[in-house]
Design brief:
Low-confidence stretches: none
Largest sheet: 5 strands, mixed
Distance between the termini: 39 Å
Order of helices and strands: EEEEHEH
Number of helices: 2
Number of strands: 5
Shape: globular
Number of domains: 1
Radius of gyration: 13 Å
Strand content: 25-35%
Length: about 110
C-alpha cells in the first residue's frame, strides 16, 4: 500500500460531500468533502506501489485544466486504470454539481 498526497489551487470551498465508486478488484472509491479555501488537497491510498508519477499526471490533467471549487478528496484505489480514475472523478464532479446546484468548477 502506498499513500500519495497532491495539492492544487482552487476557489471557494464546496459545501457538499460526495461518495462514488467502490473499492474492489480494479476499481476505486472517491470521497469529496469541503476543503480549505484556495486549495484542493488529494490523498490517494493505492494498492499499487510506485505509481506516483502516473497519479500526478492523471490528477494534474484534471485539476490544472481549469479552476475548481476547493475540496478535500480521498481516493482509495485497488489497481484502477487511469481511464477508471478519470471516469470516477467525472462521476464525482457530476454528483457534486447535482447536489450543490453549482459546479465542481469555479464560477467565472
Amino acid at each position: 500500500m502506498e499513500r500519495l498526497q497532491f495539492e492544487y489551487p482552487a476557489g471557494e470551498p464546496t459545501t457538499q460531500r460526495v461518495l462514488v465508486g467502490v473499492v474492489g478488484s480494479g476499481d476505486l472509491e472517491v470521497l469529496i468533502e469541503p476543503g480549505e479555501a484556495g486549495k484542493t488537497a488529494i490523498d490517494v491510498t493505492t494498492s499499487v506501489d510506485g505509481y506516483g508519477k502516473v497519479w500526478d499526471a492523471q490528477l494534474s490533467r484534471v485539476f490544472r485544466a481549469e479552476p475548481r471549487v476547493a475540496m478535500r478528496i480521498r481516493i482509495h484505489d485497488f489497481g484502477a486504470t487511469p481511464g477508471v480514475v478519470g471516469m470516477r472523478l467525472a462521476e464525482a464532479f457530476e454528483q457534486l454539481d447535482a447536489t450543490s446546484g453549482g459546479t465542481g468548477k469555479e464560477a467565472s
